[in-house]
Amino acid sequence: MISAIVLCAAMLAAPDGGGGGNGGTLAAIPAVPFPGCQVSFSVTADPSTRVVLAGSLSSGPTTRRGVTLCLGSDLRLVASGRADAFGTFVARLRVPLKPPILGRDVFFQAVTRPSGAESFAPTNAVAIQIGAATPSFVDGTDRLVMTHRQTEALAAADIDGDGDLDVISAASLANSPEALQILVNLGGEQGGAEGVFVEETASRLRLDGIGDGFTDGLAVAVGDVDGDGSVDLLLGSDDNFGGALNRPNLLFRNRGDGTFEADPTFPGGSFETQSMVLADLDADGDLDAILGNGVERSFPEPNALLVNQGGAQGGLEGTFSIDPSFDPTPGETDGVVAADLDGDGAMDVFFARDGRNRLLRGVGSGGFEDASSLLPAIEDNSTAVRLADLDGDALVDLLVINTGDPSYWLRNGGALSFERRLLPAIGSTSFIRLGGDAADIDGDGDTDVVIAVHTLGTEPSGALLLNQGGLQQNEEGVFTWAPEAFGAAVRPFVATDVVLADFDGDRDTDIWLGSNGDVGGADDFRDQLLVNKSCGTEEP
Fold this sequence. Notes:
Layout: H1 2-13, E1 25-29, E2 38-44, E3 50-56, E4 62-64, E5 67-69, E6 76-82, E7 88-94, E8 105-113, E9 121-129, E10 137-139, E11 144-145, E12 151-157, E13 166-171, E14 180-185, E15 197-199, H2 201-204, E16 205-206, E17 217-223, E18 232-237, E19 250-254, E20 260-262, E21 273-279, E22 288-293, E23 295-296, E24 299-302, E25 304-308, E26 320-322, E27 330-331, E28 333-339, E29 348-355, E30 358-364, E31 367-370, E32 380-388, E33 397-402, E34 408-412, E35 418-422, E36 432-439, E37 448-454, E38 462-467, E39 479-481, E40 493-501, E41 510-518, E42 528-532
Parallel strand pairs: 11-15, 16-20
Antiparallel strand pairs: 1-2, 2-7, 3-6, 3-8, 4-5, 8-9, 10-42, 12-13, 13-14, 14-15, 17-18, 18-19, 19-20, 21-22, 22-25, 23-24, 24-27, 25-26, 28-29, 29-30, 29-32, 30-31, 32-33, 33-34, 34-35, 36-37, 37-38, 38-39, 40-41, 41-42
């Protein structure tokens, strides 16, 4: 047995895991995968050879059916089959998210039996390390074939129903159709590389019936408002930079094929709408809209509720009526979310504002009461808010992004009780934070945070805050800034919003940062796509 231990130690210490096996050669790519990523195992042997692949959490040795393996007694069969005509057997496996394997070595070995042979022989053994490094990104801006505008807001959705995510951008360009940009993912029915985007606004957006009603874009929301199974678009308006024309918000209906036409009957309102959300606020099965409004010509606007006239209203789904009794308190709202925060079955609404943030408790049937006194009694300059379970307790928390003041998250303790927890500082000069989003960036089962930054110097315009649960094996809900993840991939610019999603279909989370300009006066308005290469696929 001593010789077997020495053999296994030498085999696993080899750079390629090679040596020691006479049943063929086993290789694994990548050798350091992240949870949720795919690992490709290949065995090279004679054609038609029978192959059985096993794995274990310890390196052995152990003996099964007369064959000594460099696997532990906990070994499990993970794949089997035969080598093809070229003598190659391939198995592609997803790395599980289970905490017991995070940050540790997992060992694999195959046994093979050529046609006509009576016994199996082992291949070499290989070890892969699960989640052993900080996630890393490459600059994928060259994948964005678009006219770069001054992006104010972003949303991701499958607008053409082909299984990949497209992107919608609201841009602040005075009275221009490009204020709403439709960026189509070339995967799916387009037949190209998933994760490469082409602007198709001109061919997909029809403006018939709205006259001169197009506007600068400040906000965008996506959802199926008319129940036809296709994603519709809602654009939040600017006030034309304080000019004479006060443009309404606009609804663009999906015609079922990823093209859109404006709905001239939509009661958009004359507001400085800086944020919006679509949600079923009255629990009648259709999507209503909340508009988070700002300051127009020095006058704060009240927020607005647009009730979908389908469902309980008995009208046509996808038509809207303004509820004049909703939240008449004026103010400058920069972000809005809706969710059942207290688990009573009614939707609640949180407004991120300049000053005291605002909370409305849902009382059922689309009614609300002011519950702002339940929030921490602080004055904020909040620019964005997102919903996410940040501490893994199955309750929806609130990620609040602030400009100047520290950003934080509100831990939901149930029954609308919240505890304010500060996020870490993200640099000495980058203190203007305009947007944020939350998703599992490193694939370890907890929720991380990315903040869009208006940098004042040379620091990157995106900051990754890694949740210290999961792979980090510390307390979930505690965050650490990880600047090494971006390295030199992120350039300094005015980042206004961020969307986190798997844009290239490789099962890890990528980052799209919206740009409102550079910090050096070169008028560089390029958005930036940061491609997560943790799963080993950085080429389109």
